[in-house]
Amino acid sequence: SVNSISLKILLFSFSVFSLTPAIFYPFGSVAGDTINAADDDGSSSVIQLLRPFLFFGRRYQQIYVNNNGYLTFNQASNEFVPYSFPARGSQDIIAGLWTDLDNRLRGVVSYRQYTSGNVLTRATRDINTHFPNLNFTASWVFIATWNKVAYFDLTSTETSFQVVLISGRNFSFVLMNYGDIAVTGHPVQAGYDTINSTHYFVIPESINGSSISNLRNSSNVNVPGQWAFGVDGGPKSNKGNLITHYHQFVHHHNVLYPEIILQRCWSYN
Ligand SMILES: *[C@@H]1O[C@H](CO)[C@@H](O)[C@H](O)[C@H]1NC(C)=O
Ligand SMILES: *[C@@H]1O[C@H](CO)[C@@H](O)[C@H](O)[C@H]1NC(C)=O
Ligand SMILES: *[C@@H]1O[C@H](CO)[C@@H](O)[C@H](O)[C@H]1NC(C)=O
Ligand SMILES: *[C@@H]1O[C@H](CO)[C@@H](O)[C@H](O)[C@H]1NC(C)=O
Ligand SMILES: *[C@@H]1O[C@H](CO)[C@@H](O)[C@H](O)[C@H]1NC(C)=O
Ligand SMILES: [Ca+2]
């Protein structure tokens, strides 16, 4: 019947979408990524950055991609239970989805940095869209991807997200891209925190594993599943408030309709 055909088309388009969301930057072995060892609480080796990354006033030359869903600068971390931001702790951290991920049986954690090519063009366009009037040009992009990674002890789950670091001149940005995020009973945390928590951000709803799947349809930049942050901490980011629109998308007859739920403001400094 017509109904079953349209249902099949819908299911087909949903399954295509779930393979690789359009917001994802290139990743995986086809993109030439370096792949982390499959390990419950493992990390990359130290990654020397091809350009220094400015994170709220601190300039980093190296980074680690930790399998449990987050980036650290000074040392690798095997912590599988996130602490809550703001922690007023002693490290800078960028958490795409800090929780007990485990890719021994399922999923790939990988990363790559770029200093030329289409990825820079795309990053330049994305940042100028999200942060108009900066006349920004990306000169370096770092992409870390957790693709279809299982949670510890929940070996049939698949969770996909990316953390993209972008810099040019003395501007720096973080994009978080969320695909399918499986429900979990483990503690979770998404956002970033700094030494002594002078700057931090927690993505709304991201501390509840039961509602974590909503990361795929929320945004601060009108792009479902994408969050964008300016993180250099330079003078420009102290000029007033950045108004952000937090959208959720509602399911109705298998179609996603945008619904404006909230408008959030935060002081971008
Ligand atoms: C924007 O940046 C480019 C290259 O950095 C520069 O050539 C151009 O003059 C800038 N435009 C404005 C309006 O500042
Ligand atoms: C963090 O706070 C402690 C205690 O107030 C202080 O001693 C330390 O210098 C601060 N660290 C940084 C990097 O500001
Ligand atoms: C977590 O999310 C679920 C589903 O949205 C909700 O029922 C539950 O009350 C939430 N728990 C907390 C502690 O916020
Ligand atoms: C970039 O850094 C220079 C000094 O290194 C400073 O004068 C300038 O204000 C900075 N620009 C921004 C946008 O932070
Ligand atoms: C968000 O997306 C997920 C997965 O598509 C869906 O199950 C959920 O109902 C959505 N939540 C909202 C609030 O739209
Ligand atoms: Ca783990």
Verbal overview:
There is one protein chain. This protein is mostly beta strands. The protein has one domain. Helices cover 12% and strands 41% of the residues. Strands 1, 6, 7, 8, 9, 10 and 13 form a 7-stranded antiparallel β-sheet that branches. Strands 2-3-4-5-11-12 form a 6-stranded antiparallel β-sheet, with no helix packed on it. Strands 14-15 form a two-stranded antiparallel sheet. A hairpin with a 3-residue loop joins strand 3 (58-66) and strand 4. The longest helix has 18 residues, at 2-19. It starts with a helix and ends with a strand. Residues 236-269 have low confidence and may be disordered.
In total, the number of strands is 15
How many H/I helices? 2
Name the ligand types.
2-acetamido-2-deoxy-beta-D-glucopyranose, calcium ion
Helicity, as a percent range = 10-25%
The run of helices and strands is HEEEEEEEHEEEEEEEE
Mean pLDDT, to the nearest integer, reads: 86
Q: Kindly provide the radius of gyration, computed on alpha-carbon positions and rounded to a whole number of angstroms.
A: 18 Å
Major sheet attributes: 7 strands, antiparallel
Number of domains: 1
Cα shape: globular
Secondary structure class reads mainly beta
Q: Which runs of at least 5 residues are low in confidence (pLDDT < 50)?
A: 236-269
Q: Which range does the strand content fall in?
A: 35-45%
Determine the N-to-C terminus distance: 56 Å
Domain NIDO: 96-234
Keywords: Signal
Organism: Cyprinus carpio (Common carp)
Signal peptide: 1-22
